Amino acid sequence: MSLPDGVERRRVDGRERLATRGEPVYGEPTDGPWRLWDAGRSKLGATLELGLDTGLTGGESVLYLGAASGTTVSHVADFAGPTYAVEFAPRPARDLVDVAASRPNLFPLLKDARRPETYAHVVESDLDALVQDVATRGQARVAARNRRFLAPDGRLLAAIKARSEDVTRDPASVFEDVLADLRAHYEILETARLDRHHDDHLVVVASPREE
Ligand SMILES: C[S@@+](CC[C@H](N)C(=O)[O-])C[C@H]1O[C@@H](n2cnc3c(N)ncnc32)[C@H](O)[C@@H]1O
């Protein structure tokens, strides 16, 4: 699998690490103009490290749900085109605004990802990628509701957190249920557990079904 243009492997301290070019955000080490992308702090970073075929090539339009204070979405904005970043908690959203100051293609939105109608007037349609990392119950429902923004050949890249659905259940059976719900709206292309970097998370690569 090739990395998106704008994402490189840099050898730092004898280790190959993913990196993008941009202003540092979370105290990550730098290598000249490159900022290292910590897979332990980013499910999308872990997904790229695992070598999944994300469909990301660089320069794409992205809707990112669950942006928090911008750790991962800052890397996305470094290599992507227009990047709409939805976060509903005001505190991290304030940090996100600072992260966007040096990234003119990053648009922070203080919105609830369960209510896409509240940002549909801002976010363009026919997007190339929907990246989802929302710690909430009903993650399949969030992906279904935001499917409207994706181009027919776009990609959903969703990190599903089992504990957000049900802390008491076995993660594997939670993932089965979430995948069953997702299949109503998406064709699942690939899945992988992210446990090496993120406990009880499943990443899902999917394409939207015709509706
Ligand atoms: C695991 S954190 C995201 C980390 C971030 N994606 C990163 O890698 O830098 C999950 C985020 O989802 C946000 N969140 C949960 N439910 C949400 C919702 N309904 N709408 C928007 N954001 C939501 C939380 O406030 C939290 O910041």
Question: How would you describe what is shown here?
Answer:
With 211 residues, the protein is of the alpha/beta class. The protein has a single domain (39-208), classed as Rossmann fold (3-Layer(aba) Sandwich). The protein has helices at residues 43-50, 71-79, 90-101, 139-145, 162-165, 171-182; strands spanning 7-12, 15-21, 30-31, 34-36, 62-65, 83-87, 106-110, 127-132, 150-161, 186-193, 201-208. Strands 7-6-5-8-9-11-10 form a seven-stranded mixed sheet, with helices on both faces. Strands 1-2-4-3 form a four-stranded antiparallel sheet. A hairpin with a 2-residue loop joins strand 3 (30-31) and strand 4 (34-36). Helix 4 (139-145) packs parallel to helix 6 (171-182). The longest helix has 12 residues, at 90-101. The mean pLDDT is 97. It binds S-adenosylmethionine. S-adenosylmethionine is lined by residues 42, 66-68, 71-72, 86-89, 92, 112-114, 133-136.
